[in-house]
Fold:
Amino acid sequence: PTLTGATILIDDSPQALYRRWRAAEDFQRFMPGVRSVEEVAPGVQLWTIEGPAGQEAELTSRIVADEPGARIAWEAEGRGAVGRAAAHDGEVTFEETPRGTRVRLTLAFDPPLGTAGMLALRAIGTFDATDPRRQARRALKRLKQLVETGEIARAT
Structure:
């Protein structure tokens, strides 16, 4: 698997950020490409996401580690070609620092068709929108904006 991620400092407590991350209804507010998240059982969520070229995909996410206020880890399996391409394992950690909480998002995924597939998607201009590293950075920046200002800035 390919490992990627992002880290950001947010002016809130680890406990508050953990609770926000566990609130499934908040994901579509700060996660790029997420159309909906539904809790279907304790620790199991059904995600509807936007894939390449606007295709819709579904992922089932299962929480495999849950340490309140500190860490959440999950495994996500997809349905259909687009969903299988979006399958990944992930972890988010919340670490208190004197200047706020350090939030680290780490994703492990198998790119469709490996490195060659990533290069092909970049060549046709599709990869940037679905690049897991870029999406991790965008998600954390949007979470920071939402937590610290109450809204997500949009370009006009």
